Every structure is written in C-alpha cells, then in structure tokens.
Amino acid sequence: MRHNGTGISAMGVAALFMAGFFLLVIFGARTYQDAAALQSGHNERRALLSYLSVCVKGSDTTGGVQLREEDGPLLVLADGSGYGLFIYQRDGKLMEEYSAVDAQPDPRNASVLGETDVFSVEEVRPGTLRIETDAGKTLLKLRSAEAEP
Question: What is the side-by-side strand order in the sheet with 93-100?
C-alpha cells in the first residue's frame, strides 16, 4: 500500500488547528474567570459603601446619626429607643453591632459587614457626612440637619 503524503499533511494541519482552537478556548475561559472574579470583588466593595449610605439615610432623624471616636471612627445610628447600630472597623473588617447607644462597642458581639482597609466618617460641614472605604468616598447630606433650628 502506498500512503498519500497529502492526506497525512492535511491531517497534521487539521490537528494543529484543533490544538490551537482548544488552547484559545482554555485561554478565553481563564480570562473570563479572572475578569468575573475582579468584577465580583469591586461589586462587593461598592456594596459595602452603598450599605453604609442606606443605613445613614434610614437613621436620618434628629440625633439619629452620631459620630464618636473609639479606637477609630465609630458611626452610631440611633433608633430612638436608646439603642442603635454601631459601625466601626477592626482588623481590616467593617463591623456592625446593635447595642445601647451609650455603651462601648464590643467586637465579640458584632457581625462582619465586609473587608476594608480604609474606614473614615467625618462631618465635612454641618449636616454633611463623608464616608470613605476601600471602594471610594461618598457625601451624604442629612435632611434632619435642615430641620434643626
């Protein structure tokens, strides 16, 4: 039997194209996974900043939003019953704790909201808060400040 050299060459080229196609699919899938993981991380950090904004807006009553300094910034969101939500940072984690407003925060009673190396809350001008996390900064205008005489 004689083998046709053209047939073997054609099969070799087809095998080369198939190998290239599989490598391209593997490379594309890995690139997609990396991009999806990066986007998920960004979304998680932005969600943390959005959550803080919603909490502050929900507590926007006279005396409902308080800033204290307890081993770093402490955001106290009082509910009017003598209790409130404490939000603070410990060991790179943003913590949330429900406790008496005049109590000291206790990380053993807190829940972890998320990870952030940056957390600051300050009143940049009367009635305006600036909150900063790893995801960025946001300015919040407190409507309750407008109602105060």
Answer: 65-69, 73-78, 83-90, 93-100, 111-115
The closest alpha carbon to 65, from 87, 92, 46, belongs to: 87
Contact 94, 115 (CB under 8 A): yes
Predicted confidence at residue 112, as pLDDT, reads 93
Q: What integer pLDDT is reported at residue 2 of this predicted model?
A: 57
Q: What is the pLDDT of residue 24?
A: 93
Query: Mean pLDDT per segment of 10 residues, for the chain of length 149 residues?
Result: 70 91 93 87 78 90 89 91 93 93 91 90 91 88 72
> Cα dist. 104→40, 56, 73, 108 in Å?
34, 20, 13, 12
Structural contact between residues 58 and 144, judged by C-beta atoms closer than 8 angstroms? no
Compute and round to an integer the Cα radius of gyration of the chain. Answer: 27
**91 near 65, Cβ under 8 Å?**
no
Q: In which residue are the tokens 């594309």 written?
A: 28
Domain ranges of the chain: 48-147
CB 127 within 8 A of CB 145: yes
